[in-house]
Every structure is written in C-alpha cells, then in structure tokens.
Design goal:
26 strands, alpha/beta, 2 domains, UDP-n-acetylglucosamine1-carboxyvinyl-transferase, Chain, 12 helices, 4-stranded mixed beta sheet, 423 residues
C-alpha cells in the first residue's frame, strides 16, 4: 500500500488504540489461567492477532466479541506441531518459553523481519533449562521440545527485556518450589514493571531486588475468572503528541496517566522540548508550540519512542541528542540506519556517535517518495514529518502500520490530514 500525504494542519480528538504490549501479555496470562479470562478493550493489530492465534495453538479457546475477547483455558500448555508468530518479536520471545513448559515437540516460526533476528539469548536460556532445540543459525524457525525443569537461572538482559518477561510468566506458572532469576544489564525496565503489574493482577507472587534478582513463589493453581481491561497505547499515541506539538491542537484520550508502559516517558520529552500541553480528567491537550526547544533524552529503556522523537527533534531550535541507538539494531529494520536514511532523503541532518543520535533542528523538510522499510514505526514517523514538509510525500509499503496500529491513517485523516491511500 502507498500513502500520499500533503502538508496539513491538524486538530481534533484522538483516542489511543489498545496497548499491544498489554494485550500480548494478557493473552499469555489468560492461556495459563485455569478458568475464563475476559479482555476488555482488546487490540486487533497484526501482533495482537498473532498472540491470539498462538494461544489457540497452545490449547486455549478464544471467543471474539464486539467489545471483548474471552479466553477459556485449563491453565495447561498443549502445543500444536507448528506455532506461527507472524512478525511479532514479543510473541516469539514470550511464547517460545511458555510453550516449552510442555513435553511435546513443536516448531515455532514467523515471517518478515522476524526471520532475520538473532535469538542468541533464547538459545542461552534453553541451554540453561535443558530444553532440546534446533534453530536456523540462531534464527527462526526453532524446533523445540520441553519440558524445562523450573530452577534458578541467570540471563543477560542487555539485548531485550522480552526474554525475562517470558521467563517470569513461564516459571511463575510452572514452578512448584521458589525459584530465582539473576539478570545482568537489564534494559527496558518499565516493560518488566508492566509484566510484574499484570502478573500480580493474575495472582502471581514475584519480588525483585533492583531488577537484578527476581524471586518467584509457586502459584496457587485454582480455577478463577478474571476480567482485565487493556490500556491505551503510549507507543502509538507518542506520534500524535509530536503531531500536536508541531502541526495543531489535539485532545488525546484513552491513556492511563499512571501507566507502567515505558513510552509514557513521552511526557518527559514534552517538558524538555517546552511543548504546550495540559492534563485534565485523563485527557491530554497538546497545542502547536513555536519555538520548540532542543532536548537531550535517554531512550535506552523506551526505544520505541525513537522514531517519534527524531521527528520532534527535527522541528526544535538547536541540536537534540537521543541516546539508545544500540537498542534499534534488532527491530523490524535496523531502525537507526533506516531513520537516518529516510529522513536524510527528506532533508534532515543527523550524526551518530557511539550510542547517541544527534539531530539538527529546524530542518527544512521536503516531500519525497520513501519506503517504510516494512517498519511500522518508520511509516508512522514519516507520516507525521510529512505534515510539515514542502510538497507531497509518498510512503511505499505503508501497510506496515497494520503490525501495531491498523487505524493509524484513518485517525490521521479524521484530524484533518490530507492523505490518500493507494492499494
């Protein structure tokens, strides 16, 4: 799909879509819950649909209604021969560990950029837990045969926190005696806060010491019915925070101001950049701000904010620095390279020094034809930047947004963006 965007002023109301980070965790916890789990405000992005399909492949029954999804499970894991993860990195890292609770052999695979991602950390985990496996040179597909025996384990948390999320949920569900996880160099701690918060809601008992030692108590397996509502997604909403600051007035609703989601830190950046905004009754009003101030921000724990922050930085007065470039290598694309390539074509000026991206402010952006590189956040970032570019911007493979936010272009159009979709 190709999207054509003409520079536009935007204003109006924006309702944040459901958080796919919460949705996928809720699916895993619903699978391992003995009883009925009702998910309110569910998401239906490609990653969400992948998680729902996976838990059906692992033995749960899924019923989709208009405003909710019902998961019925006996709390056990019974994998089918093949499990398909789509292009969802979280689903693969989470469910490959959860599925290894069972003694059945299965193949877990995916598509697109997920097939190219190095999964060395998963291999180290499986070796430590004595799980039998084979892989395609550390990449998908993986052939796996459990069961793993719950025990104390040490892992490297520097590549992704998603492996730790999978271990916490899998060990929390299967351990019959207390076990511990020792973690070195953990990144994206807010995502672990989200995992722990949701696990507590489902009845798990886990404590930790400064994110280096996690202590898991055996879960009481009893039949229970649980109802959980999925929060609005701060990752997706971040693009509309930036759009409001640069292009117009937007009222953003559907977000939990006290959320554990990592990308809630967009509010910190709004403060650093001097953006005019206020919060009232869980609604955030963002107004066009000129001039915007250059900012220095560490995005190591919230790397999904990087694309939106680059767009904001290009519109600030002065040079901004964003730390965390190393976290962008193993995404849907090599996101640091892709951001630099795409926005240089549009007139942006960048420099990467070690783990830091320096973005020159007050860029004179021009409308050009650029690819999304099949990366949903690149497609969204270019779309927001196109609102202030000189001339028409064409984005190819723009349907990459379906991975996390299928309604992205519909929402942008409702706010007054002049765009057309060419399928």
């Amino acid at each position: 799909m190709r999207v054509k965007i003409i520079p536009s002023e935007i204003k109006g109301d924006f309702l944040a879509p459901p958080s796919k980070s919460m949705m996928q965790r809720a699916c895993a916890l619903g699978l391992l819950n003995c009883g009925i789990t009702t998910i309110l405000n569910p998401g239906y992005s490609n990653d969400d649909l992948a998680a729902l399909s996976i838990i059906e492949s692992l033995g749960a029954s899924v019923q989709k209604n208009n405003q909710s999804i019902v998961i019925i499970s006996d709390g056990k894991v019974n994998p089918k021969p093949t499990i398909f993860c789509g292009e969802s990195g979280l689903s693969f890292r989470l469910f490959s560990i959860v599925a290894a609770i069972a003694s059945k052999e299965f193949v877990i695979t995916g598509e697109g950029s997920l097939l190219t991602r190095d999964m060395q950390t998963l291999i180290e985990i499986f070796n430590n837990l004595n799980v039998q496996f084979s892989s395609n040179d550390r990449r998908l597909p993986f052939k796996i045969k459990g069961p793993f025996v719950p025990k104390d384990i040490s892992i490297d948390g520097s590549r992704s926190s998603q492996y730790l999320t999978g271990l916490l949920i899998a060990l929390g569900s299967s351990a019959e005696e207390p076990v511990s996880i020792v973690v070195e160099n953990l990144v994206s701690k807010p995502y672990i806060d989200l995992t722990l918060d949701m696990m507590q809601f489902f009845g798990y008992d886990i404590t930790h010491e400064a994110y280096t030692h996690f202590h898991i108590s055996p879960k009481k397996h009893q039949e229970r019915n649980i109802e959980i509502s999925i929060e609005g997604d701060w990752s997706s909403a971040a693009f509309f925070f930036v759009a409001g600051a640069i292009h117009g007035d937007i009222y953003i609703s559907g977000l939990n101001i006290n959320s554990k989601q990592a990308d809630r830190k967009i509010l910190e950046v709004m403060n650093l950049a001097g953006v005019n905004y206020n919060v009232s009754n869980q609604t955030i009003y963002i107004s066009k701000t000129n001039p915007l101030k250059a900012f220095d921000f560490d995005a190591t724990d919230c790397p999904d904010l990087f694309p939106a922050l680059v767009v904001l930085a290009m519109h600030c007065k002065g040079d901004s620095s964003i730390k965390g470039v190393k976290r962008l290598i193993n995404k849907e694309s090599n996101r640091a390279f892709t951001l630099q390539t795409v926005f240089t074509q549009m007139g942006g000026i960048f420099d990467i020094v070690d783990d830091m991206m320096i973005v020159k402010g007050e860029a004179s952006l021009k409308g050009v034809e650029v690819p999304s590189h099949h990366d949903h956040r690149i497609a969204m970032a270019v779309s927001i930047a196109a609102l202030s570019a000189h001339g028409e911007t064409n984005i190819t493979d723009a349907d990459a947004v379906y991975k996390s936010f299928p309604e992205f272009y519909d929402k942008l159009k409702l706010l007054g963006c002049s765009l057309s979709l060419i399928k």
